[in-house]
Amino acid sequence: MIYDSIIIGRGLIGSAAAKYISRMKKSVALVGPDEATTSREKIVFASHYDAARIQGLVGKDAVTTMLNHQSAKAFAQLEKETNIRFRSEEGCLTVFPDNPDFFIREYESRAKKSGIAYRIAESVDSMKGINSEFSFPPFAKGFYEPAPAGHINPRLLIQAQQNAFEKNGGKLFNETVKKIDLEKNVIKVICFSGQIFEAKKVLLATGAFTNFFELLRAKIELKLKSESTVLIKVEENQALRLQSLPALLYKINQPGIQDIYLIQPVKYPDENYYLKVGANISGDQFFTTSDEIKNWFNCSAGLDVSGLLQAAHEILPQLSCSEYFEKRCIVCYTPHGKPYIGAIGNFGLYLAAGGNGYAAMSSDALGKIAATMMEEGRFPAGIRADDFKPVFKK
Known about the structure:
9-stranded mixed beta sheet, flavoprotein, 8-stranded mixed beta sheet, alpha+beta, FAD, 394 residues, oxidoreductase, FAD/NAD-bd_sf, FAD/NAD(P)-binding domain, sarcosine oxidase activity
């Protein structure tokens, strides 16, 4: 069988794109591995195997803000369509300890242009008014977004996207792709298992592994950075006390730690509650091969997350915990700071990759852009193709 379209990659962007493409075409396949029970079983690794990601609306620029806002609206509709609840709308607080007035003016301007509700916290006391658990330096100020901001469960979000995809007639395959063969009238998708699929068009939504195996003839500029997070286990009574805690983006820039994010305690698959904290830390690494990524995920040596633990206790002085767990993931950075979405030559091959750390909250809009570009040969109104243009290695 020759499919109209195949999407490779069952992550956040790929699953969203598959949903939209399945509304446009009759025969569509979504190919990618299920979540493995142990990391050593994996050929590829994904960062969406998690229960909590921040959902903010105002982003680092006007384009990111638009994508976040569009995705938040689409997420609400997706929950109704699939009856899968993956959002929590406790709000999102962005805190600026340095030069706060400048950054808050920027955020306020973006919010006003997009019609996003917000409140400015002019002092530490006003931030305590948002939630009394917080503690910040005396000159910090905050930018608070109410619902629909908060956090999302990426596992359940992907489940909902794929549920909608299959309802539209799409076919899901638990396979890992190792090679793309571009032939005259068809594209062959060859898997590690030996399974071969054929399609008229193929979208690569393969994240950190886009440059590996034999997926692209010309490699793209993509910086792959380790991301270390810590899951702090809390008792149920403490989780209930913190259930109104908004998601936090703390724009700190200190030696050894930058850009902290924190999410209220969430129940994970093991039935325990964990408060999630992450940041850019001095021990972060950069990868250039798939083996380096695999070795990092499988490494038994503990990460130095002391800075993350200290930050959590400084932000939440009343936090108590008996144990914590390290969690590893990968962030893909592009040179222009926006995801790559575009055609690769004239062979029917397309690309959607490079979330720059914000893929979860904007994934639905990114998937829609990729689907429209691939199937209709255009970008949606208000979206500039040049903002997402793939950059190839020289």
